Amino acid sequence: MDKKTHDTVVVLDFGAINSQAAAKRIRNMNIYCEVLPYTASAERILALKPKSIVFQRGKQCGEATLGREPAADVAAMGLPILDMGAPNYDDNAMQDFFTQMCGISRDWTTEAFIEEAVESIRAQVGEGRALLAMSGGVDSSVCAVLAHKALGDRLTCVFVDHGLMRKGEPEEVARVFRDQFGIGLRSVDAEARFLAKLAGVTDPERKRKIIGEEFIRVFEEEAKAAGNPEYLIQGTIYPDIIESGWDGGKQVKAHHNVGGLPEKIDFKGLVEPVKYLFKDEIRKVATALGIPSTIAFRQPFPGPGLGVRCIGELTKDKLDILREVDAIFRGEIVAAGLQGSPCSQYFAVLTANRSVGVSNDARTYAYTVALRAVTTVDFMTAKFVKLPMDLLERVSEQITARVPQVNRVVYDITSKPPATIEWE
Ligand code: XMP
After folding, report:
1. Residue 423 Cβ contacting ligand 1 at under 6 Å
2. Going from the N-terminus, what domains does the chain have, and what CATH number goes with each?
3. Which of 213, 216, 238, 384 has its CA 20 to 30 A from that of 92?
4. What DSSP state is assigned to residue 261?
5. Are 260 and 254 in contact (CB under 8 A)?
6. Separation between Cα atoms, residue 330 and residue 334, nearest integer Å
7. What is the pLDDT of residue 385?
């Protein structure tokens, strides 16, 4: 995207807990803005040619943020400054400040973004070819459609089916991209090789590592088969950049994102079409591009997939059981209209526990599944959703009636912290 065509606001983040909130509000006014740390040099700020600077101090959290002061040279730039620390500006007051005081035009729209993103991919890749790892999520889907508009057949999209996807997902993704966008995915059925590598492995972090590494191996092979395109298209999003930039955020689990940059393939360049967008902006772009809502509003799904929702060793049998149970639960959540809000993420877990039950007067000894639904904005903290009891009852009855390997259904009523969202 050629950001230079838009009037820009720079939000200086003083480590406030809601550091991205101001940026989102400003962008909602169709004004382009970027977030920089309060320690950013004058040079770095001026490189963006901002028309205004916003101080985002927000509420204090543990460490005092109000006491911090911007570098003296920021004040010396002579740009209009909006300090969010003191009065609580409403959107109208903010808008007046930007348009009337700073003369900023509100021209940063979804349509403008799409047009500029396509142009920018074309400019970067030139006559070259590009490769994209499609995960089926909204970020890589938007990248695929934008890159396909820009490059046509010079784009190769690879979908690695590691056998850890949800029920029907690989087929659905391939169908949507083929039928609706004319994008032929190279779907790689890699279930057998992933499960072979994972045989006997029970430690969650080992599982993540194996899945991440095997993904890269498969992707390298596909890159070779496609004649090693020069460019890699990646769905990096703005929060990844902001959060990895300066707060040294604590990480509880190693997040091996499927689609991570393979180290061994020598790409001439990395293309990141949505790296300045927040998640809700990507969903807007997806909708404008005609990507169906099942993908545009898909709940986050971890790179290692069901691999971290099937406790202990992974086998095809156990994964198939989990796929059935998970599909029943998700179906009921969607039927009740609870997806997105309040259920930011909702899924089933196949526990390693088996217990005694009774069916048709006979004793059973079968799996316990756990259902989990959480509300969260940033996925760093989350609250379990107080789902209606009659919904839980319906789900439980359907699971035990349709999946004979399961005789007990429990609902996870733990928030994060102290639990994490995923069980592994
Ligand atoms: P936790 O379990 O850490 O999850 O509370 C927070 C968010 O991150 C997702 N998650 C992952 N995503 N690779 C991913 O791409 C991973 O290994 C991974 N582990 C957790 C999780 O689904 C939730 O949205």
Report:
1. no
2. 3-101 (3.40.50.880), 110-296 (3.40.50.620), 309-411 (3.30.300.10)
3. 238
4. P
5. no
6. 6
7. 98
User: How confident is the model over 257-303, as pLDDT tens digits?
Assistant: 544 555 666 789 999 999 999 999 999 999 999 999 999 999 999 99
Nearest to 253 by CA among 302, 189, 293, 321: 302
Least Cα distance to 16 among 70, 61, 53 occurs for 61
Q: What is the pLDDT of residue 71?
A: 62
Mean pLDDT of 315-331: 98
Cis ω before 239 (30° cut-off from 0): no
> What is the maximum alpha-carbon separation in the chain?
82
Instruction: Kindly give the number of the ligand 1 atom that is closest to the alpha carbon of 300.
Output: 24
Please provide the average confidence, as pLDDT, over all residues in the chain. Answer: 90
Does residue 4 carry a pLDDT above 60? no
Question: Does residue 133's CB lie within 6 angstroms of at least one atom of ligand 1?
Answer: no
Above 70 in pLDDT, residue 253?
Answer: no
Residues 97/140, Cβ–Cβ less than 8 Å: no
